[in-house]
Design a protein that fits this description.
This protein is mainly beta and 257 residues long. The protein has one helix at residues 11-23, and strands spanning 44-56, 62-74, 78-91, 94-108, 114-125, 130-147, 150-165, 171-176, 178-186, 189-200, 203-220, 223-235, 244-256. 5% of the residues lie in helices and 67% in strands. It has a 12-stranded antiparallel barrel.
Length: 257
């Protein structure tokens, strides 16, 4: 069974989604998860695009734009996909939030339950003074439990991280690229939840912990409501950046496969 075939309802997944959406109402996360973007991936070529807008005029003048998507091809043995993302906030004529990233990932299916993963990611985020982050890594993903047609997947890997922040020297670290992903359905709603643990391998007291959830609610053919939330904790926190960071996004999603 491929990991993203049609799952059934699982109370645990439903509870995780609503818990995370409640947590995620307090801020905005700097790290994106791509698990939810693959939930509607069909065989061979597919494309997913999500767009969200938010704005105000009067006492506060701003416009938020959040774009993300996936373009991929899944064959019998190989799975290649690219995930672009862009988020900006214009406030009083100034761009106060500017987030851009591109993630390229390849997987080789080994068995029905296991596959490799390798990736390259480039990221920039003005709000947390991140001028550049480059990640290169890989590892092994294994389905440790099945939940109907869904399941629980464990990923273990390593990545090389090069990071440059405003006013600081560039640093290079080897981090873990570990995660647990749970996915299932609540009726026609597709649910995904993933927890990431990314320690610096030479000192595990320096780490990132990220929890993400998504719910895709079908509206009409090809078009869905996309609800996603995330919570991140980074220790130690970079200069003038809070250790805890969270976000909640509501957008429209188009799936073509």
């Amino acid at each position: 069974m491929l990991p993203h075939s049609q799952p059934r309802t699982t109370p645990v997944v439903v509870l995780m989604v609503f818990t995370t959406l409640a947590l995620a109402s307090v801020g905005r996360a700097q790290v994106r998860s791509y698990e939810g973007l693959d939930r509607s991936a069909g065989e061979q070529g597919y494309m997913t695009a999500v767009v969200a807008f938010d704005g105000a005029i009067g006492n506060a003048d701003y416009v938020d734009t959040d774009l993300s998507g996936a373009l991929g091809y899944r064959g019998e043995s190989h799975w290649v996909r690219v995930y672009p993302a862009f988020r900006t906030r214009q406030s009083s004529g100034d761009r106060v939030v500017d987030t851009r990233s591109v993630h390229l990932r390849h997987s080789l299916f080994l068995t029905e339950r296991s596959r490799t993963f390798s990736f390259v990611q480039w990221q920039k985020e003005k709000a947390i003074e991140l001028d550049r982050r480059l990640l290169v890594g890989g590892g092994l993903r294994y389905q440790v439990a099945s939940l109907g047609a869904g399941g629980v997947d464990l990923g273990v890997g390593l990545m090389l991280e090069e990071e440059l922040r405003t006013g600081a020297d560039a640093r290079t670290d080897v981090r873990g690229a570990n995660f647990v992903s749970v996915y299932g359905d609540a009726g026609t709603v597709k649910l995904s939840g993933t927890t990431y643990f990314q320690p610096i391998m030479s000192d595990w007291s320096e780490h990132r912990l990220l929890l993400t959830m998504s719910a895709v609610v079908p509206l009409v053919k090809y078009l869905s409501l996309d609800l996603s939330g995330s919570w991140r904790r980074e220790v130690p926190s970079p200069r003038e950046v809070e250790a805890n960071d969270a976000s909640l996004r509501v957008g429209l999603r188009v799936d073509l496969n």
